[in-house]
C-alpha cells in the first residue's frame, strides 16, 4: 500500500506534513527574502551591482555571529557570578569564536570586493552605516565598554561611548542622521557585564588602575588558582578577538573608501582607527598579561587584522 505524501512549499515531498523539516526549521523562505536589497521604506529592489549580494550576505552573517556572541555572553556572566570558572572560560571561548567568525566574514569583503565595484552601490547605502549595528553595540556593552568611558576622538573632541552614540539626528552635511543609542542599549548597560563580573570575582572593582594590574598579574601567574588563571586567559583572548574585528573593519574601510567620510556621518577610517586605539573592556587585564609576557596574538588572529596591500585589482567587474 503506497503512503500518502505531501509536497511542501520548498519543493520537498514528505511523508508527514507535521514532521520536522530542515527548510522550515531554518526558515529558508525568510532567508531568501532577507537576501534581497531593500529601498527606503522596506520595498525590495534590484541589486545595484552583482557584488551587492555578497555585501548584504556578509553583513547579515556578521549579525548572526553577534547574536551568537550575545547569547553566550549572558551565560558567561552568569557562570562567573556563580563561580563556575571552567564553564565561564569555555563560554568566553565561544564568544571569542563567534567574533572571529564575524571577522573572517568581513575579511571576505576585504579580499573579494574591489573599491571600484563597491562604488557602484555605495550611493544606495548613505546615510546607513555598519556603525548602526545594534547587536555589535550590545556586544560592546555586555563585554564591558562603559557608557561613560572614553570611546573615540572625533573632530577634535574625545567622546564617551554614550555621548558619541547618543547624538541626535540633525540637518547638515557630515552631521548625524540617526541616533545610535537605543533604549535596549540603556537597559543592557544597567546590568552586570563580562568585565564587571570578572572585576568582582578577581577583587579589583573600584581599585586604582595600578592596583588592578598588580592583582590581575597575580591571577595571570596562577597565584589565585588554575581556574582563575584559565578564565583570565580566556578573557584576554576575547579582548583580542574584539580588536581583531575592529582591525578588519578598519582595513575594509581603508580598502574600499580610503580617506573618504563614512556613510554614517563618521570620518570613516579616522573614526575606526580612534575606536581601535581607545575602546577597551579589559584594559587592566591586558596590561597584566602583557607585562607577564603573554604570547603575541596567534598568526590567524594577526592575519585578520593585518594590513592588506596590493589587492587593488578588479575581481569581477560590473
- Give the structural class: mainly alpha
What name is given to the CATH topology?
Methane Monooxygenase Hydroxylase, Chain G, domain 1
Anisotropy-based shape: globular
Q: N-to-C terminal Cα separation, in Å?
A: 56 Å
Low-confidence stretches: 296-300, 307-318
Q: Helical region count?
A: 14
Order of helices and strands: EEHHHHHHEEHHHHHHHH
How many β-strand stretches? Answer: 4
Largest beta sheet, briefly? 2 strands, antiparallel
Strand order of the largest sheet: 1-2
Q: In percent, how helical is the residue content?
A: 55-70%
Beta-strand share of residues: under 5%
How many domain units?
1
CATH architecture: Up-down Bundle
- Report the CATH C-level class: Mainly Alpha
Task: Determine Rg (CA atoms, Å).
Answer: 22 Å
Instruction: Report the mean per-residue pLDDT as an integer.
Output: 89
Please tell me about this protein's structure.
The chain is mainly α and 318 residues long. It has a single domain (23-302), classed as Methane Monooxygenase Hydroxylase, Chain G, domain 1 (Up-down Bundle), CATH 1.20.58. The chain is built from 14 helices and 4 strands. The chain has helices at residues 22-25, 28-34, 52-81, 85-112, 115-122, 134-143, 161-165, 183-189, 194-202, 209-220, 226-256, 269-278, 283-291, 299-305; strands at 6-7, 13-14, 150-154, 157-160. A two-stranded antiparallel sheet has the order 1-2. Helix 3 (52-81) runs parallel beside helix 6 and helix 11 (226-256) packs parallel to helix 14. Residues 296-300 and 307-318 have low confidence and may be disordered.
Amino acid at each position: 500500500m503506497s503512503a500518502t505524501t505531501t509536497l511542501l512549499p520548498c519543493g520537498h515531498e514528505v511523508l508527514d506534513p507535521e514532521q520536522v523539516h530542515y527548510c522550515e526549521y531554518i526558515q529558508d523562505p525568510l532567508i531568501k527574502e532577507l537576501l534581497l536589497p531593500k529601498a527606503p521604506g522596506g520595498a525590495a529592489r534590484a541589486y545595484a551591482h552583482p557584488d551587492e549580494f555578497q555585501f548584504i550576505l556578509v553583513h547579515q552573517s556578521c549579525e548572526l555571529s553577534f547574536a551568537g556572541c550575545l547569547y553566550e555572553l549572558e551565560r558567561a556572566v552568569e557562570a562567573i557570578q556563580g563561580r563556575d570558572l571552567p564553564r565561564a572560560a569555555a563560554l568566553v571561548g565561544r564568544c571569542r569564536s563567534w567574533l572571529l567568525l564575524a571577522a573572517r566574514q568581513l575579511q571576505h569583503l576585504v579580499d573579494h570586493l574591489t573599491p571600484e565595484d563597491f562604488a557602484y552601490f555605495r550611493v544606495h547605502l548613505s546615510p546607513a552605516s555598519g556603525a548602526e549595528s545594534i547587536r555589535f553595540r550590545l556586544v560592546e556593552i555586555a563585554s564591558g565598554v562603559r557608557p561613560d568611558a572614553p570611546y573615540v576622538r572625533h573632530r577634535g573632541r574625545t567622546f564617551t561611548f554614550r555621548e558619541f552614540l547618543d547624538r541626535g539626528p540633525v540637518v547638515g552635511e557630515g552631521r548625524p542622521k540617526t541616533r545610535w543609542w537605543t533604549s535596549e542599549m540603556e537597559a543592557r548597560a544597567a546590568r552586570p557585564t563580562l568585565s564587571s563580573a570578572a572585576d568582582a570575582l578577581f577583587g579589583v572593582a573600584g581599585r586604582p588602575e595600578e592596583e588592578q594590574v598588580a592583582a590581575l598579574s597575580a591571577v595571570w601567574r596562577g597565584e589565585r588558582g588554575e581556574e582563575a588563571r584559565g578564565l583570565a586567559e580566556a578573557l584576554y583572548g576575547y579582548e583580542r578577538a574584539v580588536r581583531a574585528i575592529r582591525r578588519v573593519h578598519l582595513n575594509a574601510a581603508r580598502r574600499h573608501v580610503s580617506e573618504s567620510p563614512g556613510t554614517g556621518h563618521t570620518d570613516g577610517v579616522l573614526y575606526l582607527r580612534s575606536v581601535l586605539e581607545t575602546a577597551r573592556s579589559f584594559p587592566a587585564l591586558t596590561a597584566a598579561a602583557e607585562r607577564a609576557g603573554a604570547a603575541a596574538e596567534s598568526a590567524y588572529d594577526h592575519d585578520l587584522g593585518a594590513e592588506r596591500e596590493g589587492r587593488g585589482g578588479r575581481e569581477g567587474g560590473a
